[in-house]
Fold this protein.
Amino acid sequence: MKASVLLKSSLLTSLFVISSCATTKYTEDISKNNYSNLEAGKMYVVKMKDGSKNQKMLFRNIDGNNLMGTAGKKDSTEVIIPKSNVASVRDSRKARITAGAVVIGAAGVAALVLSSSRAD
């Protein structure tokens, strides 16, 4: 009985971990990168290839070889990031929702394992 509950809880945990990927990574070859999944009006966190500080931006559009947007919904400072310097782009809203789901799921799995271990 213990093994089956442990197996089920492990599968649930791995499912939550796998579903928590909310980052799109980009390759060195700019022509292979597809930025069409970025949506205008959404906040993104852009990780730079050169290791500089991550840049938050409210994405607006793509102009040639640059990602364009503003620093935030209330901050209208223009942000221009060259595509050649982008390592990954993370949707900050999806990341928070997924992190919350993982925490709730992990608590549920822990409660399941704890209750099954006390039932014996």
In short: DSSP finds two helices and six strands in the chain. The mean pLDDT is 77. The two ends are 9 Å apart (CA to CA).
